[in-house]
Amino acid sequence: MANCAVCGKGNHYGIKVSHSHRRSNRVWKSNIKRVSCKVNGTPRKLYVCASCLRSGKVERA
Fold first, then answer.
1. Which of 7, 8, 9, 40 is the most buried (most CB within 10 A)?
2. CA-CA distance, 61 to 36, in Å (whole number)?
């Protein structure tokens, strides 16, 4: 999966622990969208996470 072009956020890995304490691997996927953004005045498609879009770190084209 892609990483955010602004903050670098990507997948997070860890261990899921059940009630009986059996452990298995799991993945938390970040909310990353492919968005058309202005980069030096020209529109380009970038992968950006939802928190960077909400905070206004990216100007949409």
1. 9
2. 6
